[in-house]
Amino acid sequence: MKQQQPSIEQTIPILDFGSQYVQLIARRVREAGVRALLVRPDISLEELKAMNPVGLILSGGPSSVYEAGAPRCDPDIFKLDIPVLGICYGMQIAAELLGGRVQPGQAGEYGATHLAVESRSSTAALAADLFAGVPEQTTVWMSHGDQVRDLGPDFIPLASTPVCPLAAMRHKNKPFFGVQFHPEVTHTPHGVKILENFLYRVCRAAGTWQMGNFVDSAVVKIRGQVGGGRVVCGLSGGVDSAVAAALLHRAVGDQLTCIFVDNGLLRKNERENVESTFRDHFRIDLRVVDAADEFLTALAGVTEPQQKRMIIGKAFIDVFKRASKDIPDAGFLAQGTLYPDVIESGHGYARTAANIKLHHNVGGLPAELGFELVEPLRDLFKDEVRRLGEVLGLPDAMVWRHPFPGPGLAVRIIGDITREKLDLLRRADEIFLEELTAAGLYRTTAQTFAVLLPVQSVAVMGDGRSYKPVIGLRSVDSTDFMTADWSRLPYDVLARTSGRIVNEIRGVSRVVYDITSKPPGTIEWE
Length: 526
Ligand code: XMP
What we know:
five-stranded parallel sheet
């Protein structure tokens, strides 16, 4: 008899037909309390069944269902006996596979539009499963050229817009629904309600995807994998590795050893914060390797950014290898890999290698180290990792820390790197962050830092003229770091920062603020 797997959380697989909103659908489902996973549209029925699906969502996508080569799914997913919600392209493909017809609309429909939900008594009850709690007249967000023109014999219409008479549908006797609009975007004001209706009224989900529950099931899973083995976890100071370490510690206690490499390229107090959190607070066996000399010697005289990255990446691997050799019997390596990393490396449908920023692998570890990987955050998005960090009791400053690049301050000193330049930049950076935090703006900006420019400028200090370097300030707003805009920081925050930098740090003549968006300017200067 096949063994039951009671520990698998109820899941909503989302067939990813390439919608730009597909991650948003997964987020909304998770926020509503159900685990969601993005899967290829041509996933096999066996793979789907193994996920313990309580329902399926078919995402939107840029193709036309009637075109050759358009992504399709196995029509037998409709025989799995689980509810299905098709969104946009997902509604169209469901209609097409089940006897309806899709054609280009008379006009496209992009943006907010008015939706009238079926209110005739004969169908209102059928609409209620999806639209309970949603006004009969409401606003939804549309983005489509094609539309379902004929529902076929098995579906009935549930809602319409001025341009799209068949804007929502349901099967007459099975729990299959389709919406032409996008309930997952915030511009559909009752979109969350519609998704919740699907999850709870239609799929009857248990709603157990909560961080407290996640901790319990992750602990069981980690113990199952690791047994009595010894686990090594590299801490970077960032939130992902910190949360992975705290979770591992919860699961295996003193079988965990953490390694933190001080490469001499860190921000002010970075090392001390890691030490006080992990050694003093969690009482984790933390090995701090002071490798600043090794990194700075290898970097001496190097000015080319990619070369800096390569040197730092290689030195990190060397140092980590040596440090982990000192931990006898270590068989497992814990890493803070997140769900978006997993999707980007080809599991989802529309993610392509072009999206992956290869330089982000700097600071990664090669497979030849010979460890078995433990990746307890593989299922989580960044905001879920932060929530988990809070549940595990990590300090706010660590949970909400801005990302910091693996090569650290080395890519924020334009030109060659010396200890003096590092000290100067560290101080300027600290002042900027202090002022930002004091103004309550740390959490509203995505990344904020100082850069040391290889430019000297004239300043008059006291009675004398001096000729000293320039500090650049960079602060950006961004959600995915692929695009970013410069933060509109209040002038008085900039003024206080600049005033303090030129007064408190000898050797800075001038402070400038970077007002370049990405693209074209990258977030980092190198
Ligand atoms: P860019 O400069 O490409 O940065 O706009 C986007 C995001 O990536 C971070 N970044 C790096 N992270 N190693 C890293 O671990 C690197 O070499 C690296 N370069 C940039 C950057 O800080 C921003 O969050």
